[in-house]
Specification:
52% strand, 1 helix, 44 strands, mainly beta
Length: 570
């Protein structure tokens, strides 16, 4: 009796079969956009949201303190820096690379500090804290228990104001010398005159007033925790809600030289707290965050009513963080967002760029008003928690986990290095020509290996010789990596894209198995008329149906080159 054989697999089958592959030629690996470049390692190099690399500002470590957290920093007019810290609670004077304790209170944290034009320091402690006044000099008031000796000079401290609040979050001084204190858990702002007289300047329905800043007209701008409100309060105390952010907590404020107000928000609102407020127009440039895809966690170890800052700084609130711009006419817009990063601090550098200090990867982003951004710098700490201006256009930076201080220069680094992610060609390959787009003085290097860890006996870095058509000198292997070294000059160095051409070794396909079944017929899969490499691949097996007059044959074949397979069946 004749046996009818059914169609199967991609084309059709009989009992005996053979196969061959249509070999593909040179392939390429290109890196140019942000999502690809952010997987590499940058040192002194900024990654642009629109793609490409450029030199970052010089970033210099100044001091490492014994405290875990630095919450606030301020500099006097001579450029001497003071840092408010916690765990343990201290105020450090940082000069010439050394940090000296000048104040050691009994509270858990020194949360905020400001320095007035006369060099007097006002420091706020948490929780159940007070505001202390610190004066330097032998003629100063009698020292208290919290004071410390700084070399041959003395610092004297005294309780300047006790607001009776659970928390004191931020301090600000106006041009008249009045001190303002943002507090919780009753959402009050206190004003203390130079004569020491204090009044409740503003009472909010929010639980906490978190951050303060003055605009060019002398209005106090305040951000809250609870409903994420941004207030504008006139010198007479008249208040107006500028914005109800989609986030529950305003974590940072910065006033731009053009009058724009920039605020950072974090934490998810609950129970409809954000039902009122403005809709947020999106910037014309896509917003985006960066960093490894680590899942966000809760707000920390503190009570739910306590803002993020007092909880565990290594925790990130659900929903990540966002930055909003409020224009002088009052219209808001979201210009940046991240699911992984929490913005702790905002400030403008010497070039007028908005910098955002974030955790938990210690990154500093430069964000412009259109929403384009640069992954600018990474500190050797988990969180970037504070900024303050330095002399000559620089910017001091404070971090937590560990408590360190850095200086961001107004000038670019003299040299920067970017090392790409490891590329897996999936098969032994020969490396060809590199195509580079960029400007300025940029050197490229490459290395290769046959394990995915470059530290395990890869080849040495070899320069790409553009005098010889950009040929890569790395030996044939499965994995490869490139490195760019950028040098300051005119024009400024820039790398737009790197494209590496390579040729995988062509290997024959292998049959994994052949199966023959009686009384089975396989449903035909769609025919593919072309052998083009972009044609669809059908990975799911054909569906068998019962047919007593058929014999079904199917096979599995794999090809390490991922070539399109064509079969001849006999």
């Amino acid at each position: 009796m004749a046996i009818r054989l059914a169609r199967c697999s991609i084309l059709f089958c009989l009992v005996s079969l053979s196969g061959f592959a249509v070999a593909q030629g040179t392939r390429s690996w290109e890196q140019s956009n942000f999502d690809a470049l952010v997987k590499g390692t940058a040192q002194g190099v900024a990654i642009l949201s629109g793609g490409g690399l450029e030199l970052a500002p010089a970033f210099t470590p100044l001091a490492t303190t014994p405290s875990t957290y630095i919450w606030s920093i301020a500099a006097d007019r001579d450029g001497t820096l003071y840092a408010a810290a916690g765990s343990p609670a201290r105020i450090y004077r940082i000069a010439e690379g050394k940090s000296t304790v000048i104040f050691a209170p009994q509270e858990l944290q020194v949360q905020a500090l400001v320095v007035d034009p006369k060099g007097v320091i006002y420091a706020a402690t948490n929780p159940d804290g007070k505001i202390y006044k610190l004066v330097r000099g032998t003629e100063a008031a009698k020292k208290t228990e919290g004071s410390a000796r700084d070399g041959d000079s003395e610092w004297s401290s005294s309780v300047y104001f006790d607001p009776g609040s659970k928390y004191i979050w931020d301090l600000a001084v106006d041009e008249a010398g009045n001190l303002y204190a943002a507090t919780g858990d009753q959402g009050q702002i206190f004003r203390i005159t130079p004569q020491g007289q204090h009044t409740v300047f503003f009472k909010s329905e929010e639980t906490h007033i978190r951050v303060l800043a003055f605009d060019q007209k002398g209005n106090l701008i305040a951000g809250s925790d609870g409903s994420g409100l941004v207030y504008r309060i006139s010198p007479s105390g008249e208040s107006f809600v500028l914005y109800s952010a989609p986030k529950k907590e305003i974590t940072a404020l910065a006033i731009g030289p053009d009058g724009n107000i920039y605020v950072a928000g974090a934490g998810e609102k609950h129970g409809g707290a954000g039902a009122t407020g403005f809709s947020i127009p999106m910037s014309s440039t896509p917003v985006g965050g960066t960093g490894p895809q680590t899942p966000p966690s809760g707000a920390g170890a503190g009570p739910s009513a306590v803002p993020i800052a007092l909880g565990n700084p290594s925790a990130t609130p659900t929903g990540g963080s966002e930055i909003y711009r409020i224009s002088p006419d009052g219209s808001p817009a979201r210009i940046w967002s991240s699911r992984e990063d929490l913005v702790y601090a905002l400030a403008f550098d010497g070039h007028g760029r908005l910098l955002a200090g974030t955790g938990n990867h210690g990154q500093i982003f430069a964000v412009d008003s259109t929403g384009a951004f640069r992954d600018l710098l990474t500190a050797a700490a988990s969180q970037v928690t504070a900024f303050t201006p330095a002399l000559h256009g620089g910017l001091y930076v404070a971090t937590s986990n560990l408590g360190k201080v850095f200086l961001v220069s107004a000038n670019s680094a003299a040299e920067g290095t970017y090392t790409s992610d490891v590329f897996d060609a999936h098969i032994f390959s020969r490396w060809g020509r590199v195509e580079f787009r960029g400007a300025g003085k940029v050197e490229l290097f490459a290395r290769s290996g046959n394990v995915d860890n470059p530290d395990r006996n890869w080849s040495a870095w070899k320069a790409v010789d553009f005098a010889k058509e950009g040929l890569v000198n790395a030996p044939p292997a499965r994995f490869i990596q490139w490195k760019a070294v950028m040098y300051s000059g005119n024009p400024s160095p820039r790398l737009d894209s790197v494209r590496l051409n390579y040729l995988p070794k062509n290997v024959p396909p292998e049959f994994d198995d052949v199966t023959v079944q009686v009384a089975v017929r396989y449903q035909s899969l769609p025919k593919v008329a072309s052998t083009d490499s972009n044609q669809p691949h059908f990975d799911s097996p054909p569906t068998p149906v019962h047919d007593r007059d058929s014999v079904g044959v199917k096979w599995n074949v794999h090809d390490d080159n991922d070539d399109q397979m064509v079969y001849s069946v006999y």
